[in-house]
Amino acid sequence: MRSFANSLGSANLLTGPRKETSRKNYSLFIYTLNLIPESKIIFECAVSCCLFGRSDYGEKVVPLSLPIIYMEMDTKKITQEPYDKADLDEAVETLRRGGIILYPTDTVWGIGCDATNEEAVRRIYELKRREDSKSMLVLVAETYEVERLVSEVPEVAYDLMELAVRPITIIYPHATGVAPNLLGEGGSLGIRQSRELFSSALCKRLRRPIVSTSANISGEPTPLFFSGISPEIVAGVDYVVKYRQSDETPREPSQIIMLGPTGEVKVIRP
Prior knowledge:
This protein folds into 2 domains: 2-74, no CATH class; 85-269, DHBP synthase (Alpha-Beta Complex). α2 packs antiparallel against α3, α2 packs across α4 and α5 (85-96) packs across α9.
């Protein structure tokens, strides 16, 4: 922990009891999380410290002043290749018919369907040979769509979605508006706002959340690229999206954060 702090040089770190932290400082920290590899070390405690002044991981560490890093992140842009409209049209029509598709997401390739279609969700579980007790997440295109699925969205959720610079999945309690077999324990649901070009457009066109689960048989390694997807999975869907099939750019898995009923934060995957 000390070596990380020293490597930042200008960083001001606080440890110990709760410290009041401004919204600006919280914003700086979220950007820092995604820029510095070593930030994984302090991610678990920092979100809860910044917002709630506590951590389930013991030592409390809150970076307060990282202006240079913040400026670099603020100007960073991601270029994405355009997709074929006919490819998108076919994917949307397949989903509307209750079919399942193989499509690129903001992380790895995924198997998807209309998240409100219980039979389509069942088919995905069957294809993956996965128990339906292991819930799957959904993608949305816009922040406001989360409000249709969660009755009370904690303020911190909007901050996390707005400031995240890599994919972030947020697990909410007591979700609604999706197929019952998608929900986890206590009606929980993982939701991620996708900024990837194709999957975001897919959500907007369908006007419903879309299931997103890795394109593999349960228990087998997750393929990082389309070329690694097994023939069984490819043959088991109703449509295979053509966009980005040859793209083998490494992509990071999403961060996973669980929010409690009153906004408590628990980091599942940094």
